[in-house]
Structures are given as structure tokens and as C-alpha cells.
Amino acid sequence: MRWENLALDTGGHERAAGTALFGAHAVVTRTFDTPEFAGVTFHEVRARSLVNRVPGASRMPFEWTVNPYRGCTHACVYCFARKTHSYLDLDTGTGFDSQIVVKVNAPELLRRELGARGWRGEHIAMGTNVDCYQRAEGRYRLMPGILAALRDHANPFSLLTKGTLILRDLELLTQAAQVTDVGLSVSVGFTDPELLRAVEPGTPAPQRRLDVVRTLAGHGLACGVLMAPVIPFLSDDPALLRATVRAIAEAGACSVTPLVLHLRPGAREWFMAWLGREHPHLVRRYERLYADGAYAPKWYQRRITRQVHDLAREYGIGPDGAGTPRRIRPPGPVAPPAPGPTQLSLI
Ligand code: SF4
């Protein structure tokens, strides 16, 4: 790790560490003896700042992000945020899945930054790097304080998640939506259970995520679905696309936005190693499809987009169809990001 461990082992599951990245404040490293956190190590830090300006913001649909965690126990093999763990000299493979940095002072820091004279109340996107409703949130409960700060400052925001824990904060989301623009989006790339276990082993099942959409809609909170990623040759079969879009429609999503898998450095190595183990016959096809870099060819992306949009029309997704009444604004458009420096994970 880039931060320098002082290795003051307390004999239990805690130890203090110094860090170059998070200032002179101590880092406390913990493990918990509960099945849900087996094999997971938490590094609690006091961050020096929270609202982050996105590099190359002109190419992104948002400029400011908040990420209370780094690393994600949802452990998606394709996760685009893996590379960011290397900035801490942490492993981008299993380390990303199991070494979780927790910014324990996130709520107080955000409240202070939102109240700063220079802050102009711009839109803040959450869930753009790692999932803020991953399992750790059940223990650390950072999001209630974050949402309360955004509500109190009537600061517009959007939130993208695969976590069902978001429903714990339903009341705060409702309150925030009454005073500012709130965009909610759940990520469901496919509904096939076997593919889920292989590719997104730490996430709630797609049906449970769609129940989140349903519940939010039932409370008058419009929720879109980011259909991401569509995985070439594994989840792009027309019948699978249809089943997924139909389930999204039945959940009452106000929109569906498809996004084809992209494989930037960090994610690419991990995903291709997995592919070689699980689907070796696909390796050559992937090498050809992604021969030009991190993105599938435009023709492929256009084909998937057209198929999903046609299905969405057929199933009536959107404000004129089966979608819920819009009480709050859906998240900003999440288009395939252009190549370049970005931390967008599109969970
Ligand atoms: S893709 Fe999203 S949910 Fe999956 S591991 Fe990455 S940050 Fe977590």
C-alpha cells in the first residue's frame, strides 16, 4: 500500500497506520467476524476532501462526484474502477474486492464543503466510481449523513447503485426530492442468474434490484435503469436482451440506458483472465472485438443500443409508457464515456 503502515497491531482486529494519501490522520484497519465480511479488510480514513472534480469533465455527463468508499465488495469482474485501487498501491484484482477504504468523516466533510463560500450548488453524482450502497454501508452508515447534507443544502444530485440498501434511506431521498433535483438509477445489465453468480458475485440479484426500482416508483420516486454492462457473446443474445428489458419495464423504470462492456486497463486484465478460465473459446473473439482498445466497435454499440431502444418502446418504458410518473429528475444521461482519464465505473 502506498500509505505507510505504522503496524501498531493492537492484538485484536485493529491496527493504526499512517498514510501519505489521507494526511497525517491515522488510518485504522479493521476486520469483522461476521459472515458477510469474511475476508474483507476495511481501512478507515479521515479524508481531506470529499467533493471531487471529474478529470476531463467536458466529456462526462457530470462534473462533481462524491465517493465515500474505495474498492467494492460487489466484486464485478468487469469493474471499471479497479484501476483506481492501484493509486493506493492496492491490488486491482481481489484487493479491489476485499480491501475497502472507508472515508469515515464523509458526512461532516460534505456538509462543510457544501457550505463553503466558493461552492455554487452544482450537481453531484454518486455511485460513479464504486457503489456507495455496497455491503460496507450497512455497517458504516455514511449515506444518511450525506443525503441529509445534500437535502439541507438543496443541492441537486444523482445516485447509481446495485445495492438494495438504498431503500433504507427512502425517507431521506423523498425529503431531498422535495427541495432539489434528485436522479436515481439502478444498474441491471442482465437478469440471467447463472451469469450473475459468475460475473457479479457480490451483488444483490437483479430481481432484488428491480424490486428497488419498483419500490422507489411506488413512492413516487422515478428511477431509471442503466442496463450495464451488456457483455458481448454472454448477455447480448436477443432473447436475453428481451427478457431483461421486459423485467425492467415490469418494475416501472422510467428509462433504460444500455451500455456495452468496456475494458480499460485494470479491468481488462482481470476480466480477460476470468474469461480465459470460464469461457476460453471466447478469448479470441474478445481480442478481435476490443482490438482497438477499451471500447467495442461503434457498429456493435449501435446495434445493442438500437435493439434495447426498440424493446423499450415495445414494452412502453418511459414517461409515455409504463414508467412511473416523474416526480424527480432521472439521472443525467449516462452515455458511453469517451476514452480518456475517468473514474466512471457505471455500476
Ligand atoms: S461495477 Fe460497481 S457494483 Fe460492481 S464492483 Fe464495480 S463499483 Fe462495485
UniProtKB/TrEMBL annotation:
<protein>
    <submittedName>
        <fullName>Rv2578c family radical SAM protein</fullName>
    </submittedName>
</protein>
<feature type="region of interest" description="Disordered">
    <location>
        <begin position="315"/>
        <end position="347"/>
    </location>
</feature>
<feature type="compositionally biased region" description="Pro residues">
    <location>
        <begin position="330"/>
        <end position="340"/>
    </location>
</feature>
<dbReference type="InterPro" id="IPR040086">
    <property type="entry name" value="MJ0683-like"/>
</dbReference>
<keyword id="KW-0479">Metal-binding</keyword>
<dbReference type="Pfam" id="PF04055">
    <property type="entry name" value="Radical_SAM"/>
</dbReference>
<keyword id="KW-0408">Iron</keyword>
<keyword id="KW-0411">Iron-sulfur</keyword>
<dbReference type="InterPro" id="IPR058240">
    <property type="entry name" value="rSAM_sf"/>
</dbReference>
<dbReference type="InterPro" id="IPR007197">
    <property type="entry name" value="rSAM"/>
</dbReference>
<feature type="domain" description="Radical SAM core">
    <location>
        <begin position="58"/>
        <end position="307"/>
    </location>
</feature>
